[in-house]
Amino acid sequence: MACAPTGSGKTLAFVVPLLHHLQRPRTGGVRALVLSPTRELAEQAGVLLLICVISVKMFVLLLRKLGIHRVK
C-alpha cells in the first residue's frame, strides 16, 4: 500500500490508462466499469472522466444510489 498527498495526480494516473484502453475499436457492450470504495472518490473519478471525454466520442454513465445520470 502507498499513499500520496492530495493533488498529486492519483486519480489522473488511474484515468489515463483507462482512456488509452478505450481508444481501441469497440467490440460491443460495456467497455469499462469503475467501482470506488467511497462516494467522494467515485465523484472525483467521474468528474475527471467527464472532463477527459469532452472532445471524443465517448460518454460517461454515473450510477448513484438515487439513480442513473448519463452525460454525453
Describe this structure in words.
By secondary structure, the protein is α+β, with helices and mostly antiparallel strands. The chain has a domain of 39 residues. It is built from 2 helices and 2 strands; from the N terminus they run H-H-E-E. A two-stranded antiparallel sheet has the order 1-2. A hairpin with a 2-residue loop joins strand 1 and strand 2. Helix 1 packs across helix 2. The longest helix has 14 residues. It is globular and about 35 Å long.
Summarize the entry for a quick read.
By secondary structure, the protein is an alpha+beta fold. Helix content is 38%, strand content 14%. It has a domain at 34-72.
Give the SSE map.
Elements (H helix, E strand, L loop, with lengths): L9 H13 L16 H14 L7 E5 L2 E5 L1
Helix pairs in contact: 1-2
Structural class: alpha+beta
How much is the average pLDDT? 79
Largest sheet: 2 strands, antiparallel
Please report which band the strand proportion falls in: under 5%, 5-15%, 15-25%, 25-35%, 35-45% or over 45%.
5-15%
| Secondary structure tally, helices | 2
Number of separate strands? 2
Instruction: Note the run of SSEs as H and E.
Output: HHEE
Task: Give the uncertain stretches in residue-range form.
Answer: none
Alpha carbon gyration radius: 13 Å
Helical percentage: 25-40%
End-to-end distance: 35 Å
Rough outline:
globular
Strand order across the largest sheet: 1-2
